[in-house]
Request: fold
Amino acid sequence: MNILVTGGAGYIGSHVVKQLLEDTDYSVTIVDNLSTGSRKTLDTLRAIRDFKFVELDLKEFDKILPILEENSIDTIIHFAASIVVPESVENPLDYYMNNTVNTTNLIDKAVKVGVERFIFSSTAAVYGEPSSTPISGLDENFPTAPINPYGMSKLMSENVLKDASFAYPKFKHVAFRYFNVAGADVYYNSDNKLEPRIGQSFPNATHLIKIASECALGKREKMAIFGDDFATEDGTGVRDYIHIDDLASAHIQAIEYLKVNDSDTFNVGYGKGYSVKEVVEEVKRVTNRDFQVDNAPRRAGDPALLISNNSKIKQKMNWTPKYNNLGLICQSAYEWEKIV
Ligand code: UDP
Reply:
């Protein structure tokens, strides 16, 4: 099989490429514009097994079809996208262009050359700001109602995929709605010490576990908890944090899944929530470092609670997470933060 990974030099894409190189014999082509992805990550991945790299922005529409043809691509895993919510509110058209328009072009060319499988990274942001969450978490039938252009740009791409797969049954897809992805490559060195080879490299990250890890290392003086008056047990926001390597393994399984099953949409999360306070305490515990944590107002558009119902991916794809452990998620993020 010949797999094209767009955004393969980025945080999530690189962890999927790592598993493709380590656990399969599929040939891998990466397309990335290196806007947030890193060359160093590509060098690290190349030490596992070789692959082809094309430095390209997906907005270069005319260059996509030749890449698919020249590399006999039969499967696409599509990560390349813009992902910063506040930025999407300020520059919505950039988000619709880079996410929805470029994805639509990629789908168009994929259908034209007969690509059979398309795996798409979508987001729990398609669910918007649920006024209440069922005890069992949000399932895939929960109404979608994005509250920002980022979530909407992803939902629109999901819809383009659905219509394309309906019209061209040979073209099958899986859309994954990610919950809160965190942590880094679970790799133990020769001293049996956790030493991630890849992780979240892009500076100015806004994600909680990355920020808390930076504080634990003294890279950042202090951090803030955005809102302590939510209707949750301790008043802080609750999220479903999933280890990057478990998220990545779902993509590898999706390739096999689509060989025999029809197109579908799956949540990817552990189905368990932790509050901001709990996460900060866990980072302090596993790193054995204390740091200053202030209280700050809520961030615009932050829902109180987002927890997945992951029954569907567990049942239909037999997805079995290996790292459902907040301590390991925080520890791997911290160990990576020391290196990057
Ligand atoms: N958060 C926080 N302080 C930070 C970063 C995040 O209190 O410095 C909170 C945020 O309000 C949310 C949770 O942590 O409740 C997860 O935020 P993150 O940005 O990691 O992911 P999101 O859920 O927004 O995609």
